[in-house]
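User: Sequence recovery, please. Input:
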C-alpha cells in the first residue's frame, strides 16, 4: 500500500490483481480525507521480446484467471516503496509505485534491469466510483479525452473533474474498450461487491533499453502536469524522515514507517487527523485518540500531536467529540459515542506529560472543564452521572461504546448502563482535570473532588463480582452483566486506577487465561454461549461476531502495560513479551497486508488477519509498547545475540 497523507492511496494484491472494490492505483480523496473515489483501477502490463508477449498483470474472471502474471514475479518489497521484479530467462523488469505526499497523484516507474532491450506496453484501466461501491459500464461514462504529446486529460463523465495521465517516454495509442466481469474475490468472501468493470482508453508503448526508466503517472491535479513529474519526484525524495533513517533495521523501524501511513490532513478543520484503518475507515474520534498515543505522542511528534488534538477540540459539540467524520463530506458529523470524548482527556494527559506544553494546556482547560460539566448536567443518549458517581449512557438501538456493531438497527453488543471501561475513563478524565488544575495552579472546584471521592468509595463495591474480577456493565441496584470481556483491562492500564494490587492480579490472570492470544485479546470468553469463534461470511454474519469473540490486537498494549505494572519491567519480562509478540511480527511481514497489522483475527485459532488489513490502533499499540518499555533495545539485543551467539564454556554447558 502507498498513501498520500490526504486519505488517498494505491493498493492491490501483490500479483497485480484487484480483489476488493477498495483496490485501485489512484483512490483519490476529493475532500481530504473523505469522498474517496477510485479513479484509476489498475494497469495491464506486458513485455514484448523476440516477438513474444509476456503478460505480467493478473485478473480473475468468472471461469479463468487471465492473464496470470504472477508466474513472472520474482520478488516484491515495500521498502521504501512497493517494488516488483518481474523476469524470465532473457529479460528483467522492475516496477515501483509511489504516491506524492499531499497530492492525489500516483506514480509508476518501470526500469529495464535486464541486459536486453524490451518493448513495454501499458494499458491503464479507469473507473470513477465511490470506493464503497463497484464500478460498472453505464452510458454516462464516456471518458471524453483530450490527447496531448505526453499526457491525457480525461473526463470520466459529463460534469466530472478531469483525471490526467502522463508519461515520460513512449507513444500512446487510442484503443477504447470495457474490461467486463472482473471478479473481486475478497469482496465476494465478505458479501460485498464481487464483480466490476473497468474502462480502457488506450495504451502506451515504448522500447526500454537496458537501464532505461519509463515513468507513468495519474493525478487529478493539473499543476502536477505543468511541474513535470521528475522534478516532483526529486522534491519528494528530499522529504525522507531523517529520524527514522537513524533507526536500526527491524520490526520497530518498519512499524514506525507503517504508522505514518495513517496521518492525514482534514480539509474541514485545516488540521491533521488519523485514518482509523485502510481501506474503508475515515478518522474516528475514539480510534484517533487511542492511536495517537502511540503514533504521534510517544514518538515525540509535538506539532503533529497538537494539530490532531486541535482537530477534535474544534469539533466538540454538546460536550462530545465526534465518534466519526462521515465518508461523504456533505453528511453530518456523528456524535454517537460515550467514550471517545473521555479518551480526549487521556490523549491530552499523554501530550502534556511528553511535551510539558503549558500554553496548549491553558488554551484548552476550559473546553475540558465544559466537557465534564456537560456530562454531569447530562449529554446526548441519556449520558449522565449516577448518584454513585458513575457515568451511565445508552438508548435503544444506539451503540455508544467501542463494541459498536449494529445490523438492521439491532445493536449486537448492547451495553446500556455503566460500562466498566467507560467508567475507568470517566474517573481518569476527572483525575486528569485535577492534575491539569494543579499544573496551572488553578483551584479546582469542590464538586469535581466530591465526584472523585464518591467514585473511589463506590467503584469496587458495585463493580466487583464474586470471582474478584469486574462486571462488564452495571445498572446500580438493578442489574449486573457478569460476561467476561477485555474491557476491565483498562482499570489496570489507564494512568489512574482505584484497584488494589491483589485485585489487579486477579483480573489480569482471568484475562490471561480466557482472553489472551498472541494476536490480541478476545472480546468474549470462549465458554460463553454467545461466543462466535469465526469472523467470516456476509456483513450480518461478520458483525454478529465482531465483538463476540474476535481478537483485537490494539488491546495488547493495555494487556502488556498491565503485565509490566504487576510483574515488573525486568529484562527477562521484557524478553518474554518480545517472544509473545513474535506471531504478530510474522503477521506484519507475511499475512493479509504486507507491513500491516490487521484490525482483528478469529477468536479461535487466530492466525489469518481479518477486517481491515491495516488498522491504526493495532500498529500504534505495538509502537507505544516498544517506546514505553524500551523494547526496541531488547529487539536489538536479541538480533545481536542471533548474529553473534555466545560461545559457552565448560562451566556453562
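Assistant: Recovered sequence (653 residues):
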Amino acid at each position: 500500500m502507498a498513501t498520500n497523507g490526504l486519505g488517498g492511496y494505491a493498493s492491490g494484491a501483490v500479483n497485480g490483481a484487484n480483489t476488493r472494490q477498495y483496490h485501485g492505483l489512484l483512490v483519490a480523496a476529493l475532500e481530504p480525507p473523505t469522498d474517496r473515489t477510485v479513479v484509476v483501477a489498475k494497469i495491464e502490463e506486458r513485455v514484448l521480446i523476440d516477438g513474444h508477449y509476456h503478460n505480467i498483470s493478473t485478473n480473475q474472471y468468472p471461469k479463468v484467471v487471465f492473464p496470470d502474471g504472477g508466474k513472472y514475479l520474482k520478488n516484491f518489497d515495500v521498502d521504501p516503496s512497493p517494488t516488483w521484479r518481474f523476469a524470465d530467462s532473457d529479460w528483467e523488469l522492475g516496477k515501483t509505485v509511489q504516491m506524492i505526499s499531499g497530492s492525489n497523484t500516483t506514480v509508476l516507474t518501470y526500469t529495464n534491469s535486464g541486459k536486453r532491450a524490451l518493448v513495454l506496453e501499458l494499458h491503464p484501466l479507469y473507473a470513477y466510483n465511490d470506493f464503497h461501491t463497484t464500478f460498472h459500464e453505464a452510458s454516462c461514462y464516456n471518458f471524453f479525452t483530450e490527447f496531448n504529446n505526453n499526457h491525457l486529460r480525461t473526463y470520466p463523465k459529463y460534469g466530472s473533474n478531469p483525471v490526467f495521465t502522463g508519461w515520460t517516454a513512449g507513444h500512446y495509442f487510442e484503443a477504447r474498450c470495457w474490461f467486463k466481469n472482473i471478479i473481486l474475490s475478497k469482496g465476494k468472501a465478505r458479501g460485498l461487491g464481487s464483480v466490476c468493470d473497468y474502462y480502457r482508453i488506450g495504451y502506451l508503448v515504448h522500447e526500454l533499453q537496458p537501464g532505461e526508466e519509463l515513468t507513468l503517472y495519474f493525478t487529478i491535479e493539473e499543476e502536477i502536469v505543468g511541474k513535470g513529474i521528475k522534478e516532483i519526484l526529486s522534491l519528494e525524495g528530499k522529504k525522507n524522515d531523517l529520524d527514522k533513517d537513524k533507526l536500526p533495521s527491524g520490526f520497530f523501524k518498519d512499524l514506525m514507517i507503517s504508522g505514518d501511513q495513517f496521518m492525514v490532513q482534514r480539509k474541514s478543520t485545516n488540521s491533521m487527523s488519523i485514518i482509523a484503518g485502510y481501506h474503508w475507515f475515515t478518522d474516528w474520534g475514539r480510534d484517533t485518540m487511542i492511536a495517537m498515543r502511540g503514533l504521534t505522542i510517544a514518538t515525540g511528534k509535538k506539532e503533529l500531536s497538537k494539530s490532531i488534538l486541535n482537530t477534535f477540540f474544534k469539533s466538540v459539540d454538546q460536550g462530545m467529540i465526534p465518534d466519526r467524520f462521515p465518508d461523504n463530506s456533505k453528511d453530518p458529523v456523528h456524535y454517537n459515542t460515550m467514550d471517545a470524548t473521555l479518551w480526549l482527556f487521556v490523549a491530552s494527559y499523554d501530550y502534556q506529560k511528553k511535551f510539558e506544553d503549558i500554553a496548549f494546556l491553558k488554551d484548552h482547560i476550559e473546553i475540558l472543564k465544559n466537557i465534564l460539566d456537560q456530562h454531569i448536567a447530562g449529554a446526548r443518549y441519556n449520558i449522565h452521572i449516577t448518584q454513585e458517581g458513575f457515568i451511565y449512557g445508552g438508548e435503544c438501538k444506539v451503540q455508544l461504546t467501542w463494541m459498536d456493531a449494529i445490523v438492521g438497527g439491532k445493536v449486537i453488543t448492547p451495553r446500556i448502563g455503566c460500562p466498566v471501561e467507560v467508567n475507568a475513563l470517566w474517573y481518569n478524565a476527572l483525575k486528569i482535570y485535577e492534575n491539569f488544575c494543579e499544573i496551572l495552579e488553578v483551584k479546582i472546584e469542590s464538586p469535581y473532588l466530591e465526584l472523585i471521592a464518591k467514585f473511589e468509595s463506590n467503584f469496587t463495591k458495585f463493580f466487583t463480582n464474586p470471582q474478584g474480577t469486574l462486571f462488564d456493565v452495571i445498572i446500580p441496584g438493578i442489574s449486573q452483566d457478569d460476561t467476561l470481556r477485555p474491557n476491565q483491562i483498562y482499570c489496570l492500564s489507564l494512568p489512574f486506577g482505584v484497584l488494589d494490587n491483589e485485585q489487579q492480579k486477579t483480573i489480569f490472570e482471568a484475562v490471561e487465561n480466557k482472553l489472551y492470544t498472541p494476536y490480541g485479546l478476545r472480546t468474549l470468553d470462549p465458554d460463553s454461549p454467545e461466543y462466535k469463534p469465526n469472523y467470516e461470511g456476509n456483513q450480518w454474519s461478520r458483525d454478529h461476531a465482531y465483538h463476540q469473540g474476535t481478537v483485537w490486537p490494539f488491546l495488547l498494549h493495555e494487556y502488556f502495560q498491565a503485565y509490566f505494572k504487576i510483574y515488573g519491567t525486568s529484562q527477562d519480562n521484557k524478553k518474554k513479551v518480545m517472544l509473545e509478540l513474535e506471531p504478530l511480527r510474522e503477521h506484519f511481514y507475511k499475512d493479509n497486508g504486507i507491513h500491516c497489522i490487521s484490525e482483528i483475527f478469529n477468536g479461535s485459532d487466530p492466525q489469518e488477519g481479518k477486517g481491515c488489513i491495516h488498522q491504526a490502533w493495532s500498529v500504534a499499540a505495538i509502537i507505544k509498547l516498544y517506546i514505553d518499555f524500551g523494547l526496541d533495545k531488547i529487539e536489538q539485543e536479541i538480533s545481536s545475540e542471533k548474529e553473534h551467539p555466545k560461545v559457552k564454556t565448560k562451566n556453562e554447558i
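The first strand starts at residue 2 and ends at 3.
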